[in-house]
């Protein structure tokens, strides 16, 4: 397969973790803040509540909790980690939060950096990590998805504020000895022509610095989304990209044990599963509990299904992230050593 040309090592997926957030905001509570109802939110999205980070929480603290838990579940020490990739769109520091997490967990040998690809970020980071492992550059890699979308939410906008929540999840990927490679295939896509459908843009005004030289002064604005357009994009593009990835792997939808999509809307999960003819029992959904946690949604769902024993070693997983960019992608993998 062309994606594997020149590779010298395989990849295994050996651990998962997620952060535990205590505070949950229910639909009923939200209905006291904006003109909405539990009924509207639940029937249109499947969401019942979302977690909100506490005053002491941060991408650093939640990402570190998820990473430490994933490293422990892989029976590794933080000092065994060579690389940390943090998928986030809401870093504590615009220069990156991955190094803060590296310090927090004591992964002193690891190089660490952020990747921004919104709700596709975790899948994009996982595929990026695999490239470093396949070339032999690194052995043990932690991939984190962590976002505090409550920071970027306009709590007066009922079209968006009902959707989002905070969270962090992580996995450990490891170099495989021998012939095996458990990242069976991937397919990543971007379409900047649809960029204005989903944004948290920098808004600024020009301030004169000296003579005719101006600088931009402003701030990042809350999330704006053309929900219907993004919905249409997701139900068309996500099945396509999963089918393409399956084709690269020489597999069909019948070979998938679990479908783990970005948790954006239960109706999107149902539509994609129907199109792919994957039974609903094999579709991972924790949306009712977490809402849409951006780059964190796939690793949180994965970790919950692994820890509850539903996902077992050797299971074939189809992961797909989609969202701002617009961007989307799929990875087909075998879970476990
Ligand atoms: O994470 C990145 C990827 N994001 C996504 O994939 C999101 C994709 N989009 C969606 O999931 C859906 O489009 C939404 C959940 C955002 C919206 O659902 P919808 O069924 O597409 O609703 P709509 O935007 O077509 O709005 C239908 C009606 C409108 O009223 P009118 O114009 O028909 O009178 C809205 O004003 O529902 C109204 N509405 C609400 N009513 C009560 C919109 N939001 C709310 C609300 N509560 N929270």
From TrEMBL:
The keyword Signal does not apply. It catalyses: 2-methylpropanoyl-CoA + malonyl-[ACP] + H(+) = 4-methyl-3-oxopentanoyl-[ACP] + CO2 + CoA; (2S)-2-methylbutanoyl-CoA + malonyl-[ACP] + H(+) = (4S)-4-methyl-3-oxohexanoyl-[ACP] + CO2 + CoA; malonyl-[ACP] + acetyl-CoA + H(+) = 3-oxobutanoyl-[ACP] + CO2 + CoA; 3-methylbutanoyl-CoA + malonyl-[ACP] + H(+) = 5-methyl-3-oxohexanoyl-[ACP] + CO2 + CoA. One of its GO terms (biological process) is fatty acid biosynthetic process. InterPro entries: ACP_syn_III_C, ACP_syn_III_N, FabH, Thiolase-like. It is found in: Cytoplasm. Residues 263-267 are annotated as: ACP-binding. Pathway: Lipid metabolism; fatty acid biosynthesis. One of its GO terms (molecular function) is beta-ketoacyl-acyl-carrier-protein synthase III activity. GO terms for cellular component: cytoplasm. Homodimer. Belongs to the thiolase-like superfamily. FabH family. This is Beta-ketoacyl-[acyl-carrier-protein] synthase III. It comes from Phormidesmis priestleyi. The gene is fabH.
